[in-house]
Write a structure and sequence with these properties.
By secondary structure, the protein is of the alpha+beta class. The chain has one domain. Helices cover about 25% and strands about 10% of the residues.
């Protein structure tokens, strides 16, 4: 499994201007503390992210973490870990 990224997340909305950027709507929007910001109003409300960014909120992230742990454990049990020489 590839590492889950924003582009495959149901909470991510791709930008109209750039397919590589979008906004994360996992949590409610927030009001920026700096009202003089010159950013796009949508990105002021939800975090602006790139398509290949990942975080722990992606629904597939727990499964990916378990897959990584299982692979590392199998490698360590076979004597192929970082400590073996």
């Amino acid at each position: 499994m590839d590492k889950p990224a924003c582009e495959t997340c149901p909470y991510w909305l791709v930008s109209d201007r750039d397919d590589n950027q979008g906004t994360c709507s996992r949590y409610p929007p927030t009001v920026p503390s700096d009202v003089s910001c010159q950013y796009d109003p949508l990105s002021m409300l939800w975090p602006l992210t790139y398509h290949d960014t990942s975080c722990g909120e992606h629904p597939d992230f727990p499964a990916w973490i378990e897959e990584q742990r299982a692979a590392r454990k199998a490698t360590d049990e076979n004597g192929q870990g970082a400590d073996s020489t």
